[in-house]
Amino acid sequence: MMGSEDDQESKVKMETLFLREESNSNSNYRSAMSTLSDSRHPSIVVTPADSDPLFAPPSYYNESRSKPNGGNRDSSSYLEPPSYADVIFSPFDDNSEINGSDDGGSSLHSQSSDSLSRSPSSLTSDYIKITVSSPQKEQESTNSMIPGGTTYVTYQITTRTNLSEYGGGSEFSVRRRFRDVVTLADRLAESYRGFCIPPRPDKSVVESQVMQKQEFVEQRRVALEKYLRRLASHPVIRNSDELKVFLQAQGKLPLATSVDVASRMLDGAVKLPKQLFGEASSSVEVVQPARGGRDFLRLFKELRQSVSNDWGGPKPAVVEEDKEFLEKKEKMYDLEQQIINASQQAESLVKAQQDMGETMGELGLAFIKLTKFENEEAVFNSQRARANDMKNLATSAVKASRFYRELNSQTVKHLDTLHDYLGLMMAVQGAFADRSSALLTVQTLLSEISSLEGRAEKLEAASSKVFGGDKSRIKKIEELKETIKVTEDSKNVAIREYEQIKENNWCEVERLDRERRADFLNMMKGFVVSQVGYAEKIANVWTKVAEETSQYNRESS
Amino acid sequence: MESTEQTRSISGSMQSPRSPSSLPYLSVSVTDPVKLGNGVQAYISYRVITKTNLPEYQGPEKIVIRRYSDFVWLRDRLFEKYKGIFIPPLPEKSAVEKFRFSAEFIEMRRAALDIFVNRIALHPEVQQSEDLRTFLQADEETMDRFRFQETGIFKKPADLMQMFRDVQSKVSDAVLGKEKPVEETTAAYEKLKHYIYELENHLAEAQKHAYRLVKRHRELGQSLLDFGKAVKLLGACEGEPTGKAFSDLGTKSELLSIKLQKEAQQVLMNFEEPLKDYVRYVQSIKATIAERGTAFKQHCELAETTKLKEINLDKLMLTRSDKVGEAEIEYREIKAESEVATRRFERIVTRMEEEIVRFQEQKTEEMGVAFHQFAKGQARLANSIADAWRSLLPKLEASSAVQI
Do residue A342 and residue B385 have CB atoms under 8 angstroms apart? Predict the structure, then answer.
């Protein structure tokens, strides 16, 4: 047996590694989960980003839970009949003049959305905040044949955190390019099978010409920031080595850009640090596959590629008998469809609000012109009176128009949660797919074992007929038996892996369900509060005009 | 037939008059649109109900059936007879075939026709018109006959004379090499003309945006409806308490959608239509301005012709020609015509002066009402939106508390 001793050794190593990883990941997960379940105190934070309104609002809105009359909180106490108009700050309130600029609004937006949807910062404990900024063009410095070389864009990634995993309270920056992000995503996908890993931003199929363009770069920057923040908000992934390395390691990203087949074969059983701190470019062979094992390598490669990441595509013969799982999968699919639908309708709503604001503004401007005209040309007092009436109407129309547009940018922020969750639903798909492929591996190994055993039986039967033994056949049988043993071991590893993934799945889906429900509730609250606040403001504006024109009230009582 | 100079003030109102029966009143309502006829010849007929105590009318109440072209006939007659007065405008004929019988269009037209007739009934001079009486009282066959006459081949002699004169003046212009049309050049009148033309542009723009605003209300209503439905479906998939929250949100959204559609209709009838009416009014003033221009030209030309005839007559008298008699008759005729034309022109000027005052005051009143109703409607809508959403908050808050 060639290399059998090595096999043993590395097998043991492998198992130890696997066990260590297993307990690590479990404890990581469980400790993360227990932090989350410290729910009676307001100090839970799952979210890292404390002032970015683009990020999903925190899972646990905790304002007036302990005290019904919210004490001295922000004026957004829902239990008294409040005027939400006061809560929503606008630079375009009653006393302001009609002017053309809208710039003043945006900074106030984030302020106001802060006051409504964040817990006061004194309550945070752990936090990690990631910012992506300063895109820069850089040259490919390799020995490229092309004169001048190709350029690519790098982004500065700044992390501010007080997590102990990152060395206590600190701030640090690295420069990364998009390719690095792809690497990160791939490595995470392998290490955290069964987890709901947020999907990374798309690679672009557009030419490098477009890639240099301002708009594209900015879009990508925003997408990267969102992605990294989501990763950081995942209780387990935030502490992963991969993420740590990505955020901290200066210079070139020390993660393997491609994966050797061996670790693929064992479905991620290989512990990553070995690759991390070894040389990036060398392919680390953790396991020396047996000769017969080369067939398996080929087989698994094919399996890997054929398990597609979709819901209903034709699958190789995974026999899924877990009813609960199948039900859950279907439920998730339905949910995803409804989120898509709701997200689309939300977009239409936003457009309609936008249009309303615009047209109202145009109406106001048309009346302003009329007012000016009548005043200039006035011969009679009736004209002046009319000009005055028009002015009141116009002023209010312009104000109302501004309110509609401000409301709309709030609405966009809140309803964006729907869109965000589409990405996360994809993550669930990924987790389920991991499970399916792990199960397929197990099943395939099982059937391989039984066919190998079948072959061994046949050989034995044939060999026993030959008197004195059939040397060549006996040798073959021994080899087969070796192979069977290796395969058995792989099968056991695969089963453990599958069970682990199942558990990951279950925890993750639970967590996701809980977070999603909370996030959606918050979304609804934010949406509703801004609707109320702005409707009140708009009502005030028109009530004023109604009062100013009350002399024209002709309604019979 | 010209109306008498004496005007009575007759009170007219949109509903049954509450004034004691001794005060004269004339009130009209246009109601009950009904589709008659088939296919291409189909049309809408309206019930026109007149309530009055005026002696010229056949009793306290009269109901007749009229169609759009009858209104057109009335307006054309009044426009001819009461030059200088801003005859109230009619709603347009619909260009689009499909739209012609839609409920919305019919209602808008009915309302506009109602306003039209009542404005006429309220105008101190025009309300005494015989044509108005015909319109309000004649039976349908008589009305048909009148209407046919107007649009038919039979033109009144007066019209023929007018057409002849128009041609004549055009020819003489060409002969005499007058390129420029004869126009009044008083500063005040110039200002008025400029004002009217500019006003139309401004108003048309305001009306355009008002119409778009109606559409925006409808679109917002529709999107709220769709959003509500989608959110309810999402709630059905989602666990509690979020599922219930979505369901409540969806229901409110659907409710608000209805309110928005209602408000859209209100904005259309109480804001956009008055603006459109304003535009039409200004257009009818432009027509009156054109009439005045024609009258002025006639007056000028006839005055000039009269002078020429006078000069000619004097010449003939000096030379003791035997054509003096003929010339004298011609001269007297022309002079009489010229005086008529001048009086006609001056009457237009006088009337217009009064009409402008009236117009401005009327418009201030009508626009004021429109603005007031619009503002009230918008305030009401915004308040009910606020109330509807606000009612969700206690439940949402309670749900959040339960969540963890």
Answer: no
Strand locations in B3-75 (E): 26-36, 43-52, 61-67
The predicted complex's ipTM stands at 0.85
Number of DSSP helices (H) and strands (E) in chain A, helices first: 13, 3
- Closest-CA residue of A relative to B227 is A345
Q: How much is the mean pLDDT over chain A?
A: 72
Q: How far is CA A6 from the centre of its chain?
A: 42
Distances (CA, A) of B311 to B229, B305, B307, B314, B333: 88, 10, 6, 5, 15
* CA-to-CA separations, A515 to B240, B242, B383, in angstroms, rounded: 12, 11, 34
Token readout for A389 is 């009436």
Q: Is the pLDDT of residue A378 over 60?
A: yes
pLDDT at A283 exceeding the cut of 60: no
| Interface with B, mutate which of A59, A395, A520 (most B CBs under 10 A) | A520
Residue pair A229/A48 in contact by the 8 Å Cβ criterion: yes
| Cβ-Cβ contacts under 8 Å for B269 (sequence gap 6 or more) | B107, B108, B111
Residue A273 confidence (pLDDT) = 35
Where do we find the tokens 């959040």?
B400
Contacts of B61 (CB under 8 A, 6+ apart): B49, B50, B51, B52
Token pair for A359: 């047209």
Q: Does B220 touch chain A (CB under 8 A)?
A: yes
Amino acid occupying residue A297: L
Q: Measured between alpha carbons, how far is A92 from B156 in angstroms, rounded to an integer?
A: 65
Q: In what helix (H) or strand (E) does residue A186 lie, and over which residues does it extend?
A: helix A178-191
Provide CB contacts within 8 A for B109, sequence distance 6+.
B33, B44, B68, B91
d(CA A129, CA A233): 9
Question: How far is Cα A522 from Cα A420, in angstroms, rounded to an integer?
Answer: 14
- Residues B249, B275: contact at Cβ < 8 Å? no
CA-nearest of A417, A522, A520, A421 to A62 is A522
B43-52 and A151-161 beta bridge pairing: unpaired
B273-318 vs B103-122: helix axis angle to the nearest 10? 50
Min Cα distance A338 → chain B (Å) is: 5
**A387/B contact by beta carbon, under 8 A:** no
- pTM comes to 0.74
Closest among B79, B108, B66 to B91, alpha carbons compared: B108
The 3-state secondary structure of A478-539, one letter per residue: HHHHHHHHHHHHHHHHHHHHHHHHHHHHHHHHHHHHHHHHHHHHHHHHHHHHHHHHHHHHHH
Please calculate the CA angle A485-A488-A490 and round it to the nearest 5 degrees.
115
**Closest CA–CA distance from residue B364 to any residue of chain A (Å):** 5
Write out the two tokens for A105: 């609004």
Comparing B165 with A399, the larger pLDDT belongs to A399
Amino acid making up residue A291? R
Dig out the tokens for B377 from the structure: 């409607």
Structural tokens at position B121:
């009934």
By C-alpha distance, the chain B residue nearest A404 is B382
